[in-house]
Amino acid sequence: MKVLVLNCGSSSVKFQLIAMTDEQVLAKGIVEKIGASDAIITYQARDQNRLRETREVLNHEVAVDLVISMLLHPQHGVIRDRTEIDGIGHRVVHGGEDFSDSVLVTDEVVAAVRKCIQFAPLHNPHNLKGIEACERLLPGVPQTAVFDTAFHHTIPPQAYLYGLPYALYEKLGIRRYGFHGTSHKYVAHKAAEFLGKPAQNLKLITCHLGNGASVTAIDGGKSIDTSMGFTPLEGLIMGTRCGDIDPALVPYIMNREKLTADQMDAIMNKHSGMLGLTGTSNDMREIEAEVSRGSERHKLAVDIYCHRIKKYIGAYMAELGGCDAVIFTGGIGENSRNVRMKSVSNLTRFGIAVDAEKNRKNEIAIGTGPVAVLVIPTNEELAIARDTKQILVLGEETLKKTAAREAGNGRISHFVGHEKADLVLLWAEEPGAKPADLARKLSKKLSKPITTEIVREELEYLGLT
Q: Is 246 within 8 Å of 218 (Cβ atoms)?
C-alpha cells in the first residue's frame, strides 16, 4: 500500500509518498509560493539528489497536479501509474468538537470541516482545497482527514472551558481545542516504546517546540491538558506568536495605538514572540548565534522563551500528579541543546535533571533523575499515513469477512459491492451510530431510500453491532 500525505497551507503544499509495507518514504517535497509566477518546487526521490525549479503555480489544484506529475516523472518518479496511490492522507488543522479521531473523507466530513473554518480561517480553507483538488485529479482514491485537534478530545471540561459566560461556549463553541495533536500523540507512543512500558501506564509531558510550540499533559495515552487553546495563539511564546498575555492588554493597546481588530490580531500572531522580543528574527538558530556573540537582548528573549516552557512543565506535573518522562520534539526541541537545558533547569526537586554531555550529543535519553528526559524526533507525515492505512484496511477487512460469510451460507446481501462499502465506511466514521442515523446518511449518499431495518440487518450480519 502506498499513501500520499499532503499538508496544504495558505501558499504551500508539503507532500510525502510512503510505502506502508516498510514505512519508507519513496519521495517528498514541497511546492511554495502558490499563486505566484515564481513558485518554488522542491522534490526528492529516495536515494536521489534533490531537485528544485521555479515556475508559475496559480492555485492548489495546479500544485497537487505538479506533485503527481513529479511522482510519475520518467527519470525521477517513483510510480508508473496514478493507480499505485492507494490512499491520500490530509493534515486538517481544526475538527472542532465533531472529530475525535481520523476519518474517511465524505461529503459530510467536508461539510463539517467547512463549518470549522470559523475556528481556523487561516488553515481549514486550504486543507479543503487539497481535498477538493485530489477529488478531481485522483477520482476514486480514498482520502482521509487527520485532525490536529483530535488527540485533545479527551481533555476534561475543567481544563477546556474558559472563565467566560457558559452561554458563549454553547452559542459559539468557545473552548480550548489544542493543536499539534498528531505530533504529541506520535512522540508519546515512541516514548512508551523506548521506555518499554505500555502507554496506558505512563504520565508524560510532551513539548513540541518549533516556530509554533505547545506542551501537552498525557495521562495513560490520553491528552488531559494542552497549552494552545481556542486558537494556536495561546500558551508558549513562539516564533511570531505572543502566547499567554493579560487579555486586558488587547483593548488597551488598540485604544492607545488606534488599531483595528485585524491589526491587533496581526501584532499578536505575526509580529510578536521571538521576533517581537529580539526585533531581528524568529529563527532560534539565528537568535542563539546572536547570544553567542554577546547580545543581551537575544539572551533575554531565550530566557523568557524557556521560562514559559518550564512554567507549563511544572503546572502539568501538578495536574498529572507526577511525571514519568518529559519529551522534547519539533525543530527546536530536537536540536537546541540550550533550550532543553534551560527549560528543565532547577527542577531536580521534581526528579528532573539533564546530563550535559548526553544533551550535547543529542542522545535520546538525556536525563539523570527519576523522571526521564527524552529527545524524540516527531514524524507527523508517518502518523498521518498510519492512520490512513488503518482506516482503509478496516474497510477492506470488513468487506472480505462479509463475502466469506455470504459464500458460506448462500445469503444475498441487500447491497451491491460499492453500496456495502459505503455502509462500512459510514459505520467506521462513527461506530456508535444508530442504524436509523446510518440509514439516513446512506440514503442521502446513494440517492435512494434505505430503511433502518435493512441497515440493522446488514450490520448484524457484518458483525458490526
A: no
